Amino acid sequence: MTKQKIQAAITDGSSVEIPLVEAIALINETPEVAGYLFFNGEPSVNEANAQDEEVKAAAARHLVAARSMTAELFNAEVAEVGKTVGEQVQAATGSA
What pLDDT, on the 0 to 100 scale, is given for residue 4? Predict the structure, then answer.
């Protein structure tokens, strides 16, 4: 039954909780299963890697949004400076 659970976990990327003694025996028999096992309520290696990828993707999205907002603020500031300079030039030359 445990090997079936592990095979299912390998297939769908989930984890399997089994007694430590059984886990050690399985890891000795088939080392690649270690990434699908978790201990003491901590995520398995595969789950932790997936969480890391989610965090990296979220950070990348926030960075893109921040850069976009910064660019928009910069453009607005440049436009305001351009408007002010234009008004001052017009006032100085009397072409307003």
Answer: 81
